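agent> Task received from the user: take the single chain below, predict its 3D structure, and emit structure tokens. No templates, no multimer pairing.
agent> Plan: (1) validate residues, (2) run structure prediction, (3) serialize to tokens, (4) report one or two observations.
agent> Step 1 OK, no nonstandard residues flagged.
tool_call: predict_structure(input=
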Amino acid sequence: MKQILPLSICLLLSLWSLAKKQWVDGQFVNSNGDTIDCTFKIHTSRSEGILNFMALQRKVKYEDNNGNRHKLKPASASFFQFQYADEHYEFEPEQLKIRTRFMHVAQRSGDVKLVYFYDTSSNIWKQALVTSVGLLSGFLLTPFIIVTDVDKRAGMKIGDQELFMPNGDRDISVKLKKYTGKCAPFIELLRDEYPMIYKSQMEHLYAKYIEFCQG
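)
tool_result: status=success, residues=215
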């Protein structure tokens, strides 16, 4: 244990040096439905400027117009957005099993959304580090995890239905047909051309759903 702790501290300092934080203008909608202008604190990789989505999923720090700083969590906002590196980013809270996290809304068409969730479940090095220095260090490390070290999972949300976000490597054709069952042309497409469906096809099938059900 005495050897693990110094190593963990060195790894933490290394990650710290790779991370960069900056402030960007944005807006959020609070639990009362009010739209608030603010400045968000975001984390990126220092070398490439890649946005750290995982750090934004739990909470995001912001500064109000009076210069006071706060933390925005999924329970206190229904939406937040900002502009970074000439790209527009939107986030909305969604429940995934027992957790509620801010999800990156990558595409939106009417009441149908393509969202992403970022996780480290398959990153053995990160899991070993969290185990060695305790769960607290795992939370401390979150802002400094490099984006390429996480898994990006795609999901779809239709209207007020629960988020459909598959995990694992099993065939999800039955579940997807049930979830999208109100759109007959899309169900027919799945039966004819997609006998087996996996989570890696979600982005493609989201586009197909828009084409067949909203076109």
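agent> Step 4: summary for the user.
The first helix runs from residue 4 to 18.
agent> Done.
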